[in-house]
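The instructor's notes for this session suggest beginning with a concrete chain rather than abstract definitions. Hand out the sequence below and ask the class to guess, before any prediction is shown, which regions might be ordered.
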Amino acid sequence: MKRSEINAAVARAEADFARAGLHLPPFAAWTPADWRRHGSEATATMRATGLGWDVTDFAAGDFARRGLLLFTTRNGLKAGGPGNRPYAEKAMIARRDQMTPMHRHLAKVEDIINRASLHPDATLALRLFAMDRDGGLDRTARLAVQLDGLMREVEPGSVVRLAPGESITLFPGTWHAFWGENGDVVVGEVSSVNDDYADNVFAEPLGRFPAIIEDAEPTRLIVPDYAALER
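After discussion, reveal the predicted structure:
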């Protein structure tokens, strides 16, 4: 994924979050120089827990078709320890017909929320499958899902659509893919501690983070950039 593409995605998201009335924390506006100025000791927890911008094409090379923009506002460490958060929160934008590919989590429990539709007809669409005994998609079993706490049983491969304010709870092992339908959607995620390096299982060979082609200087750092700050 080109750095210029990442920069453009972040700039567009900043405008859309503001349009939706979603205020990000001050470090959302930090430049690479700001990260260096604050220093590695002060930002150690932020970097270790992956707070900040996250733009991915899932290493597939087609961000408009298969991609997602996220901003992690809070997170903890699976190892725990004094002062650790046992929860995480993200803000995301699912663009129209931009697919977050089919995946499941090993440990994370998450609520996925339509925070705001950026078009009057837009919904957040999720396709769901149960997990079979081998860890793959179960294409025959019905599955029970929680929609704002209400239980509902759906057919395998069903698409659940969330209007603004609606949410679904996803437990470990539930296969899911999602996208903006009929328009762009501002998405919220509230979950247990999030580990994007070890807790995602994709239904096809994909990567969680992009391979970055440095065709421009970064305007905002994204999570994979943090490793360079430690050198």
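Then share the key points. The chain has a mean pLDDT of 97. DSSP finds four helices and 14 strands in the chain.
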